[in-house]
Amino acid sequence: MSLLAAGTLLAKTGDAPHTDQWWTTVLVVGHVTLQLALALRVIMRRRSVGESLSWIMVIFVFPVAGLIAYLLVGELRLGYRRARRFEALFDPVREWLDELPQQFRVNWTDVENEFSPLAHLARRSFGMPALSDNEVELLATWNAVFDRLIEDINAAEHLCHLQFYIWQTGGRANEVAEALLRAKARGVCCRILVDSLGSRNFLRGKICREMRQAGIEIYGALPGGGIRMLFVRFDMRMHRKVVIIDGTIAYTGSLNMVDPRFFKQQSGVGNWVDAMVRITGPAVEALTITFLGTWYVESKADLAELRKQAKIHPTSRSGKTILQVLPSGPTFRRDAIENFLLMAIYSAHEQVILTTPYFVPSESLRVALMTAVQRGVEVILVVPDKVDSLLVRFASQAFKADLLSAGVKILQFQGGLLHTKSITIDKKFSLFGSLNLDPRSFRLNFEISLAIFDQQATNAIHQLQQSYIDRSEMMDLDVWNSRSIPQRFAENVARLMEPLL
Hints:
By secondary structure, the chain is an alpha/beta fold. It is built from 18 helices and 17 strands.
């Protein structure tokens, strides 16, 4: 070996450790810079203090997983095309809402209702006016819902619009599919909009294929997976349950298009317990607007053409109930639906009853419930004894001791997974729909709620809530405080994740 060759080899060998050290320094500096940049972005997004601190903790405590988690689910990203379609909706929907018949708009100066400020808040937050002259029929069991829905589809003459988070074939859900196929054969326009993740198996299944071949239009909302996950928030879901028949009848509530006898039986929580309301009157048009707006975003349809096909009958008078449709989601103000709920609770004088399957309350909601008790209001929270989400169960349990200590009555439903989402205030006002009492429903999912400014309709919901209470067991604070230290630790860890759930 020549001296030149030996010198070259020694130079290369001597440089190797320095090169490795240089790359290590670059990676460390780059990683820390990315962490600081994301932390700064979290701060500049002006979220709640708890949510911001939680994300900053995740970013720095989990160096790799935390960065990936924030990039995937840290922000509300609808995707470019979908966001543009939502923006294009604003002016046409505002014009449509302005054209709603004046004779059905509520003049609160002529109506004695102490909850009228809620209607004004909702009008400013969601754009939907309160409408009078509606009739509301509460369908308290899943079988009653299917009986009435199939009957209405069989009588449909113009259109059937259905929107669900989950559509699972089997049992009575197949009867609905068969009714839609018969309706389509009669020349009825049938459209189905389901969540692409919640109804993944349905969209890939035989019945969906048969309906599409028959001419029924079916779309999966908010598709995700693969490369799309880099550009859209994949866990942002379409959670609404809405049915429109001929522009004269509407359904909404908590029931997915599933037969409880066949749905998630392996989860060990029993049959899911749900309820829906059947509506006739002007509020049907408000629900139609929400459905067609979402259909426009997820399809390539023209909104003006969709409206022509809507078959709205705005002159029909059905009853005396005042209703207000509240379509919440990421395209509205981030805290809109939660602020509405908080104002409703602060308006209570005598009693608040809440039923929800998933209870992971924000600090604001916890304070509102505990403050209500201190004002002398009876607060009753009815939740399932068992839920199908382990993380949500632990997070929910972490808050129960504080609420029990404050005097909130917590009852655990023993008849299955109570999935009905309902709130009654003083037996005079109620909120009913798809909204859970957790951060996901408040800020992330597209939800639909119905504000009911009517004592008679609210009494029907209150009676349904009482039937749940009768099948529940009251939680005891002393017994609850006796649970093991490992269990408490797991609950408190889950509690830290509350802003991110």
